[in-house]
What we know:
Blueprint: E1 3-4, H1 10-19, H2 27-35, H3 44-55, H4 67-78, E2 86-91, E3 94-99
Antiparallel strand pairs: 1-3, 2-3
Amino acid sequence: MVEFRNKMTEEDAIALYDSKFWLLLSDVQVAQLQLHEERKIMPFDVFQKAVSATIGRHAYHKEFRHGFAVENLRKEVAKKLPALTIKKVTLSDKTITLNY
């Protein structure tokens, strides 16, 4: 499961999005991270591609809109997860710690 040490603020989410941090992550990490964050921290097409690659099938748009379907995607992705590691993303004036 992905956790943030503190609830992500809108400012943090925007900073992460603008940093394009996902370019440094694997598909599994991207999928896990965004599936457990309610704020959009990457482009949807990047997220959808990562989820599809991780679970080995196309993840449809509708699966990202409904609570029960999102939970099913979380479960599918969780089956593919390596052990969790802690990563720090430094954005100019602050560091955001992500567990994934």
